[in-house]
Write a structure and sequence with these properties.
Layout: H1 2-35, H2 42-60, H3 70-79, H4 82-94, H5 106-118, H6 124-131, E1 134-136, E2 140-147, E3 152-158, E4 161-167, E5 181-184, E6 189-192, E7 200-205, E8 209-217, E9 224-225, E10 230-232, E11 238-241, E12 245-247, H7 256-268, H8 277-282, H9 292-300, H10 303-311, H11 328-338, H12 345-356, H13 369-379, E13 392-393, E14 400-403, E15 416-417, E16 423-426, E17 446-448, E18 452-455, E19 458-462, E20 466-468, H14 474-477, E21 481-483, E22 490-493, E23 502-506, H15 508-534, H16 536-552, H17 588-601
Parallel strand pairs: 13-15
Antiparallel strand pairs: 1-12, 2-6, 2-8, 3-4, 3-7, 5-6, 7-11, 8-9, 8-10, 14-16, 17-20, 18-19, 21-23, 22-23
Length: about 600
């Protein structure tokens, strides 16, 4: 039993040593990663990116055999590592089903369309299949809003029937309009019945009026206004129809990630995607694990979503969605893909974080093909080799990649390449004043809390809010110290400090030396226990001798016993004869023990 206990103690101590070693290794790796976060030049940035492409090519291989899923193959093509793009293109085409899809998956088909379009392949059949998978988004609640500057009477017609409503000076509506439109929201709006989402409503009023549709998710208080508010003069007519669609997943219900990638694919191939935007916006809060703000900003180019996406950035300059479906590397790559053209300081820092977090071989997240590919796609945005003979980047031709909505139709240059998913090459930059973008120019000592873009009057038009710069530096927020210069026992890292100060933390070598003392202590304890185990018999004998030594030293006789004169009133004690005892036979077992101990000592 004692042997078992000693063995258990030994195992526990060895396990403790392994755990400490792992912690030390992890801390060392983190320290080394942080210590590399120094300012690097654009040339060094480019060399890191090239190293990333080399690593991705090595993982995927020329025949694309290293990429196993449609997602990995498509993202590798979109990243465009030259030597493997052709092999991945052929592999992706060979995996296409006869119906035009990729395994019947909406998400994978959307990614495949983006990838093949990127290399100049025809994707018409896949687009047709994708459009068959759209459905009405029934998880939205819709409202119809009527408004006028004065009291008015309106006629609403649908399904061959006419209904009359009155709108008072207080903007309230006096009655419902048939089975499709019922009073809602304290009688200010009309709620559209889900059974009537396919109806077209014709509205006419006897005063100047406006009409629009609003929507919300069933379980959310937030209400959104459809981006097509219409106005008409008295007795004019406005036609409204709900066109809220999504894409179905494997179960036939709306699938958010599938809808996001499918909408991007249709946008890139020239389709009108307005009908899919309400679903993506309204269901964003319940699908945060996919980083929905990034998709919405790419698709709509609404500045509010660019600012919101920047605000979602973590303190360490990366993105990681709430209960993310992927990880911080994938999410940061997706965010950079959306914010590629932003001049915001936080976006620059996020790009730096990606390069600082790069593995020594050039990949990301321990040779993860998916994560490495989307990061390279976001950082570099290369044109695929062979897409067009002598493909020319828009910027190289001294033109401008701008959001498609900002470029007049007669100025678009489709033969030049722009890396953004929602940008086109335009002859002119078509910049407006910062105020026309609803932005502000931050004063000295202020920082922008949201997205920034170039404007006619500034290179840094803040589309968020300008706030006073925090006195707490980034270095201090990360738990380090700002000093004029680091001491001998400290090393400089790249987190920012105020003025000319630098960010300092204890050197990695000091941390490693302190770990050796723990190692030595543990090893010493283990050696001591092993020695006790080996010499346990000798130790047992030694303890036995010490114990018996004290037993042999008997105390002297008490008063009244032999050796002392008898006390008065006590009879003298007579000494009893000591009986003779025969010698005991030898204990063979004990002899064997002593014999073994002698041999061990020799």
């Amino acid at each position: 039993m004692k042997k078992v206990k000693v063995a258990v103690v030994l195992i526990m101590l060895i396990s403790l040593a392994v755990v400490i070693a792992q912690d030390d290794s992890t801390n060392s790796n983190q320290t080394n990663s942080l210590s590399t976060q120094q300012s690097v030049s654009p040339q060094q940035d480019q060399s890191k990116i090239e190293k990333g492409f080399e690593c991705l090519k090595n993982l995927v291989k020329n025949d694309c055999s290293g990429a196993e899923t449609i997602q990995e193959i498509a993202l590798t093509i979109l990243a465009s590592p030259d030597d493997v793009t052709e092999g991945c293109k052929e592999k992706l085409k060979s995996l296409q089903s006869s119906d035009g899809s990729w395994g019947g998956s909406v998400r994978d088909t959307g990614l495949a369309i983006l990838a093949l379009n990127h290399v100049g392949e025809d994707t018409e059949n896949a687009e047709k299949w994708l459009l068959t998978k759209n459905r009405t988004a029934t998880d939205l609640i819709w409202y119809l809003q009527q408004d006028s500057n004065e009291a008015t009477q309106c006629k609403i017609s649908y399904s061959g029937n006419d209904y009359t409503i009155n709108i008072g000076d207080n903007k309230k509506i006096d009655s419902s309009a048939g089975e499709c439109l019922s009073l809602a929201r304290s009688n200010f709006w009309l709620r559209v019945s889900p059974n009537c989402y396919d109806k077209e409503f014709q509205i006419s009023c006897d005063k100047d009026f406006i009409s629009t549709l609003l929507y919300k998710q069933q379980n959310s208080p937030t209400i959104y206004v459809l981006d097509n508010t219409q106005s008409a003069p008295a007795f004019g007519t406005i036609n409204l129809k709900i066109n809220a669609q999504c894409f179905s997943g494997a179960g036939g219900e709306c699938d958010y990630e599938a809808s996001a990638w499918a909408t991007l694919a249709l946008l890139k191939t020239g389709h009108n995607v307005e009908n899919f935007i309400p679903y993506l916006i309204a269901l964003a809060d319940s699908n945060k694990k996919y980083l929905p703000t990034a998709f919405i900003y790419i698709i709509t180019n609404y500045d509010d979503y660019g600012t919101q996406l920047i605000k979602e950035q973590k303190l360490g300059n990366y993105w990681e969605a709430e209960s993310t479906a992927y990880n911080k590397f994938y999410d940061t790559g997706l965010a950079i893909l959306a914010l590629r053209d932003s001049s915001a300081d936080r976006v620059v820092k996020a790009k730096d974080w990606l390069l600082f977090s790069q593995d020594s071989n050039g990949c990301w997240n321990s040779n993860n093909i998916r994560d490495t590919a989307i990061i390279l796609w976001g950082l570099e945005g290369r044109a695929a080799p062979g897409r067009n003979v002598g493909v020319t980047y828009c910027s190289e031709a001294n033109y401008f990649c701008i959001p498609e909505a900002e470029c007049p139709e007669n100025e678009k240059l489709p033969n030049y390449f722009c890396p953004g998913l929602s940008t086109v090459c335009c002859m002119t930059e078509n910049l407006k004043l910062c105020s026309e973008y609803n932005g502000v120019i931050c004063k000295e000592g202020e920082v922008c809390t949201g997205n920034e873009r170039k404007a006619k009057d500034t290179d840094s038009c803040c589309l968020g809010e300008c706030v006073e710069e925090s006195t707490t530096t980034e270095c201090e927020e990360m738990g380090y110290i700002c000093r004029d210069s680091c001491s001998e026992n400290q090393e400089e890292i790249s987190y920012s400090c105020s003025g000319s100060q630098v960010c300092c933390r204890a050197k990695t070598t000091t941390q490693k030396k302190s770990a050796w003392w723990i190692w030595l202590l543990i090893i010493g304890i283990i050696i001591l226990l092993i020695l006790i185990w080996i010499f346990r018999a000798r130790l047992r004998l030694f303890l036995f001798k010490i114990k018996n030594k004290f037993k042999k030293e008997k105390p002297g006789p008490a008063p009244g016993q032999m050796g002392y004169p008898p006390r008065p009133g006590f009879p003298p004690i007579r000494r009893q004869p000591i009986p003779m005892t025969r010698p005991q036979p030898k204990d063979e077992k004990l002899d064997n023990v002593f014999k073994k101990l002698k041999e061990m000592s020799e």
